[in-house]
Amino acid sequence: MRSDQEAAASLAIMQSAIQAAQPGGITAKYFEDNGQWEADLRHRFAEMSDLLEHDPLSRIKAIEPFLRELNSRYTTRYATSQHEVACRSIVKVIEETGWWSCEAPSLHTSSREQTNSIANTVSAILRDIQVVGAKRPYSLITKFLYFCFPQTFAIYDQQAAASIWMWSLFAFHEDNDGSSLERFSIDQVSDTSGVGYGAVPEFYRSVWESSPKETQMAAVAAADRLQETLRKNASRAVVGVIDLLDKLLWHANGNPIHLGLARPL
């Protein structure tokens, strides 16, 4: 059961994310400025996902150009020579989940077991990459998985980690043993093994579950409006509530005012 402090902090985040997606807000402006390439990329990922479902033998070959494109677009600086290794690990682990051929769980409505499976998928891919001696591209892997499964995976990056950490300070300031604060600490969440990634979907679930029905509906409506705008250029581009939260976390970079957790003096 969530404490009153956690519920209040989580609801504040959701309300800020919805506001940021309104005309003139930072998320709406982001999609205005980046809509063309975002729409194209999301559309192509959706088409690629269909190919992966129906042609298992082409999976590694099919996903490598997309991983390379994300690496360049987001300047995650992962060595090109190691892309094939990462792709093999992605394909291997996702095949074990069965999500190439059946619908992956929705993060916001997943069971606790499914949420753990989402988190374990990230760490399993990173472990498999490390076994063969390659570097672990933690943030890049979460970005790739997000674009493949936009209703399932949330993106990890340093800005998101800083914002989730700030949320935890408000959500768990009465945590007597400090275990919750440790779980959401920047060091834990940012560990390149992915061992702390579970805190990311846990944060997203808290924000969703702490929001009353009308707020959830407002968030879905805001995401739908952004998706409709992108689909003018690409009919299969997907935008969801995960996007609203992701863009807020990235922009805020741990600033409690931008997150809606505090007011300016």
Question: What is the gist of this entry?
Answer:
This protein is mainly α. The protein has helices at residues 4-20, 26-54, 59-73, 83-97, 112-131, 138-148, 158-171, 179-183, 186-189, 199-209, 213-230, 241-252. The protein contains 12 helices and no strands.
Chain-wise SSE layout:
Blueprint: H1 4-20, H2 26-54, H3 59-73, H4 83-97, H5 112-131, H6 138-148, H7 158-171, H8 179-183, H9 186-189, H10 199-209, H11 213-230, H12 241-252
Helix pairs in contact: 1-7, 1-10, 1-11, 1-12, 2-3, 3-4, 3-6, 4-5, 7-12
Structural description of this entry:
This protein has 265 residues and is an all-alpha fold. It has twelve helices and no strands. The protein has helices at residues 4-20, 26-54, 59-73, 83-97, 112-131, 138-148, 158-171, 179-183, 186-189, 199-209, 213-230, 241-252. Helix 1 (4-20) packs across helix 10 and helix 1 runs parallel beside helix 11. The two termini are 33 Å apart.
